[in-house]
Amino acid sequence: MPVYRVSLPAFLVVIAFCRPGAASAAESEIVADQFTAREEGSVVEAVGNVRLRSGDRTLTADRIVYRYAVGRIFAEGEVTLIDADGTVHSVERVELTDDLRAGAFEALRSQFAAGGVLAAGSARRTRGDRTDFRDVTYTRCETCAEASDPPPWRVRAGTATHETEQQSITYRDVLLEAFGVPVMYLPWARFKDFSVDRARGFLLPAVRSDRALGLVVETPYFLPLGPSQDLLLRTGYATQEGPLLGGVWRRAGISSDYRVEASVTHGSRARADGTRTREFRGHLSAKGAIGLADGWSMGWDASRASDASYLARYGLGRGINVLSQYGYLRKRGDRIDADLEVYGFQNLSVLSEDDRVPTIFPRARVYWSGGPTWFGGRVIATGDAMVLAQDDGRRNRRVSLETRWERSLPRHSGYVLDAVLRLRADAFDVRAGESDIASAEHRFVRFAPAAELGWRFPLVRRFAEGQMVVEPVLQALAAPEGLNRDPIPNTDSVDVELSHASLFEPNRFPGLDRIEGGVRLNMGVRGTYQGRGGVVARGTIGRVLRLTDERDFDQRSGLADRFSDLVGDVTVRIEGIGAAYWNFRRSPAVSGVRHDQVGAEVRLGPVETGFTYVRLHDDPTSLSTVSSEQVGTEVAWQVTPEWRLSGYHLRDLGRAAYSSTLKAGFVLSFRNECLDLSLNFLREPTRASDIPPSSSVGLKVTLLGF
């Protein structure tokens, strides 16, 4: 098949491309199987696999006729016009100017480079940046547009105008269809075009029904403030509460990130005496981080609510008992790390007193790690200084310094010795609260030397199916007794519980106000199995033997007796199928069980299931001494590649009188390249303060690319 490339001397068609305002000859080209010139060269006809390029636009067709005198190109038969941005227009017949920037189209179908398909009975392009359409349909569902079934959503309009420079498209007589069914009519609508990723305008509303608020309709408005920041305004209305206002501002930079979220309403609130009032309620949350020079950074994460029940009542944070305000200045280096922090808290729980909520301003921490030193070991030094105050007048100033030397000694026999020497000094300046019987102020210093010698023996066994590692571990620790005598306060070491995670810790108190003393042995075995088919199993079991009396732990911690409770965990994971775990704490003194937690995740084809069971006897982290028992289940079914159904249920089994559902719900969702839809139901039957048992149904629809 002959192919001709036409240059300036050959055909007058290229002369047209060389006129002022048109593409240059070097940027223009026409290729075809056959050329014919007639009417004294003023008309050129190209037939067969015709390809015409003018600048950054390309036209292909079965037949093209170029009329030089009027500067017009007529194309027909499998006509395709490709714009500079990659958008492909397919038409049955087209008339264009010789620079391909203006023209008329019949039976147009446009496949936009940014996604989406537009079809029109006819269209006219003028000035190269404006196109008018008639009898228009548009959808983001590109694959659905090829099928006979209607797409999840589609826009029909009598006319539409696309203006490239303004990056907008205006529809008139608009009808929105969902799966072929008309759902909304608008006489006029304007949107940013398909090349704009972040455009100003309203998002689709979200609707939900809530027992406490009634019918809630939220209409978000998105406002881009530049290439690196935006504002999302959330305006809504609740039939039982009135207007709801809120918003989120975000900014992302090269070395900084910011996020501010706020909400406000004039709603009802139940008082402790049973009366109800209407008042302004709201919340504010701010989070940010800034990178500074030489490894320094600063940041903050603070949240505050107008009252204890606001977040839960308005669906912004049910189950949150404390809001924190946190800020830091941080240094990270090769051998030294430093932090300067401040903490504040807002109590949202009705079970504790507001005047005991602390404020920490400031807290400074330093970590320094040295290189090899005496006897091949390494020296690490840490420092911690804190000022803690409470509204009832309590104050705790504390400075802690610790230096430790540590070394690991692998032996030829296969076992490893770990040696650690510690020296810690704490200085306290304590002032009692208004209601305390103790004397007003105390100042004292505490010294705490400690030594630790560990032995572990990794044993490896290889099988044809995999490999197993079993490692017995024995740690001997010694420190003085009576390190936590009165009047040393306890502000950061209240919640203590022996578990598989803390079995080999030298100090199980979570903070610095308390130190674990005496002579004791941490004993246990841990192991790992890796097999074929992606099977991995890990486990730990052990207990603590205390050789001296230590009265700093209560019975609920599992550490009060000479022999501690037995703790352990087992985790098994099979790649592509799921995982299961079990961690426990056993004590003969309390019918054997203090803590049980069992869980599993299984995936069988399109179905994913999850199961959790928790039983706690005298939970040390709870204000109640009653045992608690809960069971939770989750199921998700990927019905089709687009449709997904999931549900969950959490139930309290602790006592028959309180055996009830804590939380339950389900979500039905649909998602493809053009539509994101979710229908959800949530049930929370618990009641607290002015938060009634909640049942809500919500519907959220997002038309992607529209």
What is the gist of this entry?
This protein has 706 residues and is mainly β. Helices cover 2% and strands 62% of the residues.
Would you give an account of this structure?
The protein is mainly β and 706 residues long. It has a domain at 4-201: Lipopolysaccharide (LPS) transport protein A like domain (lipopolysaccharide transport protein A fold), CATH 2.60.450.10. The chain has 3 helices and 41 strands. The strands form 2 sheets. It has a 26-stranded antiparallel β-barrel. A hairpin with a 5-residue loop joins β8 and β9 (117-126).
The CATH topology of the domain at 4-201 turns out to be lipopolysaccharide transport protein A fold
The CATH superfamily of the domain at 4-201 is identified as Lipopolysaccharide (LPS) transport protein A like domain
Q: Using only CA atoms, what is the Rg?
A: 36 Å
What's the main sheet like?
26 strands, antiparallel, barrel
Shape verdict: elongated
Helix percentage range: under 10%
Number of strands: 41
The assigned structural class equals: mainly beta
Strand content: over 45%
- Report mean pLDDT, rounded to a whole number: 84
The CATH C-level name of the domain at 4-201 is Mainly Beta
The number of helices is 3
